[in-house]
Specification:
The protein is an alpha+beta fold. 44% of the residues lie in helices and 15% in strands.
């Protein structure tokens, strides 16, 4: 008989209260098709019904050898460990169940109940561990150790783990940071010193009311996802000086000082993609939803110009408030979002720069790669990078 026929007969025998016959048939089915994870899961179920814990465990091990992330097999492993009194190992399996499980609405009632049970066990352990660690570490001064605090919060599930997740292009082995140390960017000294002059250039073009456009301009037929409310909206407005590697002449000539300062920055040369520089305007009571940038070969600079009370910016788990005259540099491929909860306009000068850990040869290769991708696709700036 084929493995399929053996499985059908074995499962029928199991349902009909004939576990010994079911086990024999399902054993043959699994041996005939050893790479089928459900064959071993079915056999484990029959062994459990027969009361043979040892054989059930072997069958579950075989299932997990085929697919280490198989949800049903992981749940069965949890049950075995609990029956054996191996609570510490069972906790690890409960954690694995919560990590691999799809959204609950996609599960059957039985699987949903099992996943929820695992989540309860994990949450209870984290609460007890949290209380224990808070007491044990209470004598330690952690004021100046934010990374350690964050690591503990991630360990306990109190905080998400954030990492660079560019939507288009990922360059490996680069420095991981949300905000970068200011000392890495000495060219920002001149930008910060010139804050009043840059603001004056902005205020002049703002009064002229020419050259501004919505920052987001998706095709209405394209899915805008979390940005739908801001798409083609002046609530997030921009005055572009450099856009996708092109100088916007009508705007740039009106801001000569700002353009001179930008020229001193290590601007990424990526045809159709960068450099970019703009005055970014966020209207009162406006939220830019959490999102990730397109590629991690650049960093983004914010040089605040007008910041009313009630504005904040989050990158990963780090939340900061803009202060005019104090620029910062961040990785926009880490999830980030912006809030203006005030009744006034917020304005920053925003521009991109090369990452400092890319050497000159790598930068040149990336410029060539961008051009090559465009030549292949026949369209500038629409490829993966």
């Amino acid at each position: 008989m084929s493995p399929e026929e053996l499985t059908r007969l074995g499962m029928n025998a199991l349902r009909n209260g004939e576990p010994a016959q079911a086990r024999a048939l399902l054993q043959r089915a699994a041996e005939a098709n050893p790479d089928a994870v459900m064959a071993w899961v079915n056999l484990a179920q029959a062994c459990r019904t027969c009361g043979d814990l040892s054989s059930e465990s072997v069958a579950v091990d075989r299932a997990l050898a085929v697919d280490p992330l198989h949800l049903i097999a992981l749940i069965m492993r949890v049950r075995i460990l609990e029956r054996e009194g191996r609570t510490s190992e069972a906790l690890q399996m409960h954690t694995a169940v919560t990590k691999v499980a799809p959204p609950l609405e996609h599960l059957s009632a039985d699987l949903r109940a099992a996943v929820l049970e695992s989540q309860v066990v994990v949450d209870d352990n984290n609460r007890r561990l949290s209380a224990f660690l808070d007491e044990r570490l209470s004598a330690t001064d952690l004021t100046d150790q934010p990374r350690f605090r964050e690591a503990v919060d991630i360990l306990l599930g109190r905080q998400r783990r954030y990492a660079p997740e560019p939507t288009n292009f990922f360059y490996p082995r680069l420095t991981l940071a949300y905000f970068f140390e200011r000392d890495l960017f000495p060219f920002l000294d001149a930008v910060e010193t010139a804050t009043d002059a840059i603001r004056a250039e902005f205020q002049q073009v703002f009064e002229d009311d020419r050259g501004f456009s919505p920052y987001l301009q998706f095709d209405e037929r394209a899915p805008a996802n979390q940005f739908r409310e801001l798409n083609n909206s002046t609530r997030w407005n921009a005055f572009h000086l450099l856009q996708h590697g092109e100088r916007i002449e009508a705007n740039a000539t009106r801001c000569p000082l700002t353009m001179d300062l930008l020229a001193a920055a290590p601007q990424p040369r990526l045809p159709g993609r960068g450099p970019n520089a703009m005055f970014s305007l966020l209207a009162p009571r406006t939220h830019i939803p959490a999102h990730n940038g397109v590629h991690n070969t650049r960093l983004v600079v914010h040089a605040p110009l007008i910041v009313p009370e009630g504005c904040r910016f989050r990158v990963g788990s780090d939340v900061r408030t803009w202060k005019p005259g104090e620029a910062w540099v961040f990785d926009d491929t880490v999830e980030h979002e912006a809030h203006n909860d005030s009744d006034e306009l917020r304005v920053i000068l925003m521009f991109d720069i090369w990452r400092p850990d890319l050497n000159e040869e790598e930068r040149g290769l990336l410029t060539r790669l961008a051009g090559a991708l465009d030549d292949f696709s026949g369209s500038v700036g629409t490829s993966a990078l």
